[in-house]
Amino acid sequence: MKPPLTRRRVLGKLGAALAGLMTLPVARTVKAAVQKLRVAPGAAKGYDPTQHRWVMAIDVNRCIGCGLCAEACKKENRVPEGPNYFRTWIERYIITQPKPGSAVARGEVLVDSPNGGMNGFPEPPVKRESIQHSFFVPKLCNLCAHSPCAQVCPVGATFDAPDGAVLVDPKYCIGCGFCIQACPYGCRFFNPYTRTADKCSLCYHRITRGLRPACVEVCPTEARLFGDLKNPVADEALQKFYAENRVQALKPHLGTEPRVVYAGLDKEVS
Sheet of 54-59: strands edge to edge? Predict the structure, then answer.
């Protein structure tokens, strides 16, 4: 069994990475120049990231919590099995009725996500008559325009692609875990097989070939929508989504400006 990712191991790895501190400014300059020219591993040959601006939209009112998206993501991206490894997952929110005589409008908020929602959800942990409202919220990398994960990466392995994707280059990643700790959305994990940080990549190997992300492809209710803001298509579902809904993002107060947006998001969702 490989040792868990601890603060001691993180600091040890960072110390090793900083051993070449004297050459780091030059290395960063070269890396920055390379990143502007290259496309992440897995992208289609000839794909130009400057000609696209990808966005993911999620209609909470349509999600039924079937878990097909999380299952498809694991298979498509070879995500390790187990409850701690997900590029996308579903959370169930249960808002109970307020206690009799209480002055509040709603009761306790319960949140669960058994196995990322892959196998659906069990019966609610409270009696049905005590439930005021319940709903499902798919989650994934929020594709931040101002990514905390990219800001803390000491070697530039995590970077913002020109097309809006936030990607991890496994060739550069040293597995220090700083990005995992910095992500305010809990969207990253340490891959025990690659020994690198892992997260949703929007199925970059698919979208650069004109395909949709696996999670979008399998959603039976079209709760997930995906599109290109630089190349809008008339009458497509994404344009209709923006026109008909009050679009929101998770934790807007953080100023990360996510490019994953929601409709029907309850104030209790974080």
Answer: 224-228, 54-59, 260-263
Q: How far is CA 188 from the centre of its chain?
A: 8
CATH class held by domain 1-270: alpha beta
Sequence-ordered list of residues with C-beta below 8 angstroms from that of 57, at least 6 positions apart, any chain: 224, 225, 226, 227, 238, 241, 242, 247, 260, 261, 262, 263
Domain ranges, ordered by start, for the chain:
1-270
Eight-state DSSP code of residue 193: T
> Which DSSP category does 186 fall into?
-
Residue 184, judged by CB atoms within 10 A of its CB (0-12, 13-18, 19+), counts as: middle
Count Cβ atoms below 10 Å from residue 199 Cβ, excluding itself.
23
* Whether the Cβ atoms of residue 150 and residue 180 lie closer than 8 Å to each other: no
In this structure, what token pair is assigned to residue 226?
């995906």
Evaluate if pTM is beyond 0.90: no
206-227 pLDDT, tens digit per residue, is 999 999 999 999 999 999 999 9
Sheet holding 109-112, edge to edge: 109-112, 88-96, 131-140
